Amino acid sequence: MMLEVDLSRCDSVCEVRGALADFGLEHNLRVVLQHYDIFKAVNEISLPIRPKREL
């Protein structure tokens, strides 16, 4: 499962990271907090664009 979370109103990302780690341990889950730009760069598939062929 993947969730996108807006942390712009959080005072401390460290607190959120700790709370997520605790939640993961309690529910036997692996929780990863990653910046969206890094996620996008690692997971995006870009296909090459073919130039238009002239008839």
Structural summary, described in words:
The chain is 40% helix and 0% strand. It has 55 residues and is an all-alpha fold. The protein has a domain at 13-43. It is elongated and about 65 Å long. 0% of the residues are buried.
- Which consecutive residue ranges, at least 5 long each, have pLDDT under 50? none
Using DSSP, what is the number of strands? 0
- Supply Rg: 19 Å
Note the gap between the termini: 47 Å
Major β-sheet profile = none
Summarize the structure.
With 55 residues, the chain is an all-alpha fold. The protein has helices at 13-26, 36-43.
Highlighted features:
single chain, 55 residues, mainly alpha, 2 helices, elongated
Please render the helix and strand layout as text.
Layout: H1 13-26, H2 36-43
